[in-house]
Amino acid sequence: MVGGRIVEEQAPDRQFQEQLVEAMGSGPDASPLAQLQGYSEHSVDDKGRIIMPQRFRDLFGRLCVITQGWSRCLFVFHPDTWQRIRAHLARYPFMNENAVRLQRFFISPADDVDIDSQGRLAIPAHLREYAGISLPTSESPSMVVVVGAPYRLEIWSKQRWKEVNAQIEDSSIFEAATTLGVNLEL
Hints:
The chain is an alpha+beta fold. The protein has helices at 12-24, 54-60, 79-90, 97-106, 125-131, 158-166, 170-180; strands spanning 38-43, 49-51, 63-68, 74-77, 111-114, 120-122, 143-149, 152-157. Strands 1-7-8-4-3-5 form a 6-stranded antiparallel beta sheet.
């Protein structure tokens, strides 16, 4: 090949995954944000605020970005991670329907959210509505589940979290591992 370099063709999913890992830094274990994990339950106050667990607060500081996630959860990103994701999604042309769909899903509803001095973050009303997170009433408290996952937190209404997890079968986990080529033999 004269004047260029050899480019191997890859399946779109594999190419995207490699670009995402590259965009995230030098590797999946390079950042403490890659190691987010854990589960906790929190009540929602009458202003739509929840407490961000201390272990996550230490990594996020005073700002995060919240947007729509899969299965009606909310994704919470560190601002640096969000900028990389946003830059990656912005590379796609607006004349591509799939690109526009992704940009609308993730970027359009995204909101910068301050974490106050008491470790609370206010979930914007439009995102609470998307995730089915209600404000508490005198008869019914509102609970959410916060889970850690690589490079993000997820906020779920507690009811939706139960429903989604009740639908997961072992066979679907094995199928997902096979599809992604995950081999956890140690």
